[in-house]
Design brief:
The chain is mostly helical and 146 residues long. Helices cover 99% and strands 0% of the residues.
Length: 146
């Protein structure tokens, strides 16, 4: 009997050890499953990161391209403004030149008007002298006839 109890204890210990092994195996399976889930999550996150990095690079390239286009448009607009400013300056110079010509003609006309006024004054004075001379002559003639 002693040996039966020892065999039973040995069998119980083995059975308990087997139960422990099954528990350990279940725990290992659970951990393996969790590790696999985490690995899948990591792969998904890595793919998302790779996509985000690719998108960021693409957006950065688009921004660079748009900035270059903006810079080119700024240059074109500045050149157009400069061209317009130069055209305005040319027109202003032309107007100033024409104004100088007009002012010179006005000065000539004013000089001629002054000359005409002086001549009119002279004519008026001469007419007055003539009228006075006529009156004297008429008066002398009438005195002579009478």
């Amino acid at each position: 009997m002693g040996s039966g109890v020892g065999a039973k204890a040995l069998a119980d210990n083995m059975w308990a050890g087997h139960a422990n092994i099954e528990t350990i195996n279940r725990d290992i399976d659970t951990l393996s499953s969790r590790i696999q889930t985490k690995n899948d999550s990591i792969k998904t996150l890595q793919n998302s990161l790779s996509t985000a990095t690719s998108n960021a690079t693409s957006y950065s390239n688009q921004i660079t391209s748009l900035n270059q286009q903006i810079d080119q448009l700024k240059i074109e607009k500045q050149n157009a403004i400069t061209d317009r400013d130069n055209a305005i300056a040319d027109k202003q110079n032309s107007v100033a030149s024409k104004q100088s010509e007009i002012d010179a003609k006005i000065s000539e006309i004013n000089a001629k008007i002054t000359e005409i006024n002086n001549l009119n004054t002279t004519i008026s004075s001469k007419n007055q002298e003539l009228s006075t001379h006529k009156q004297h002559t008429t008066t002398k003639f009438l005195k002579l006839i009478n």
